[in-house]
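Checked the freezer inventory, then went back to the computational side. Two predictions to log before the end of the day. The first one is the construct we discussed on Monday; recording sequence and tokens without edits.
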Amino acid sequence: MTYVDGFLLAVPKANLERYKAMARMAGDIWKEFGAIDYVECIGEDVPYGELTSFPRAVLAKDDEVVVFSWITYASRAQRDEILAKVMADERLKGEDCKDVFDGKRMIYGGFEAVVEL
């Protein structure tokens, strides 16, 4: 079974094009190092729930959109190897990647797939 890193974050609408460009670059880097899939999704139907919701989870403001993304790997071991390479890659440390979103409100985690159809 594959291994998946999942992410949820809020991006200011004013930075959306910058975010998309950064995500394309990041996706190319992840794929270059061996990720199977790299997917970024902009929230379109994400209502603000009374108790829980995607916007509540990341404390999204009125001028922000929710982004849901995931990266798929062949295994946890492969993910750990790829992630180490990505985090050391200088291309993601440039000005194009700074202040695009508030990383303190990003939710992320690694998941082992148990059903794949």
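The second is the one RB wanted added to the comparison set:
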Amino acid sequence: MTTRYAKIAMTLALAAFAFLTVFNNVTDYSSNFNFVHHVLSMDTTFPDNAARYRAIDQAWMWHAAYWLIIFGEALTAGLLGYGAVKLWQARRAEALVFARAKGWTIAGLTVGFFVWFFGFMVVGGEWFLMWQSEIWNGQDAAFRFYMAILGVLIFLNQPDANPD
């Protein structure tokens, strides 16, 4: 049972993280919007790089991208929260039932991985060359987030014994 409780607790911790990320992005919209604006406009990347043609200069697209990020974070929080409830409900069930209850959590972890790995590392980091910016580089933070998500995903998917 300890392992099951740990899986539930870790799911809840990541749900809380994703929820607080959404809360902060909505209640302090301009701070993180500035991040998205500078990454997408590529205005702090190396001035002579040949990829600056990728820059987006339309404000509506910066807002759209930011709301897409917020939506992904909110979806992560919701799926993980619901997943934790389903895991809690199945905590005393047979191993197969508990394994089936992991589906919502797996979905939430997958969405979170896409937000922080695909969104920040692939799109932001490589397409918009965020790594070139000394000021607007969120790759280290994104790395911490998606590695925590992957760690929980791996732990969650370890087989569970039947409860005593």
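For RB: Residues 59-89 form the longest helix (31 residues). The CA atoms of residues 22 and 74 lie 6 Å apart. Let me know if you want it refolded.
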